[in-house]
Design a protein that fits this description.
The protein is mostly helical and 85 residues long. Helices cover 80% and strands 0% of the residues.
């Protein structure tokens, strides 16, 4: 599965849980808190995936730059890296 798609699904699930918590009647307070906790979890997982993606891009970029500085011929940057630079 593509990481961006996984992030999208996690964010969508988070939004669904927040909506469920908002629509829950006050007498079902525990269920609303459970929904909010799930939303925080999904958001945290999505944030971790995004952080890992950024770290991987930085690592790849630094390796390409090191290779270029060492006189080696670097491989062309993928399109996603070109967009970020």
């Amino acid at each position: 599965m593509n990481a961006d798609y996984a992030i999208y699904l996690l964010r969508r699930r988070r939004d669904e849980r927040i909506t469920a918590a908002e629509r829950t009647p006050p007498r079902h307070h525990e269920f609303a808190e459970h929904c909010r906790a799930e939303a925080r979890f999904f958001d945290g997982v999505a944030d971790c995936i995004e952080q890992l993606q950024r770290e991987a891009i930085e690592e790849r970029t630094s390796r390409v730059l090191e290779k270029a500085g060492a006189g080696g011929v670097p491989r062309p940057l993928p399109a996603i890296l070109k967009e970020l630079l």
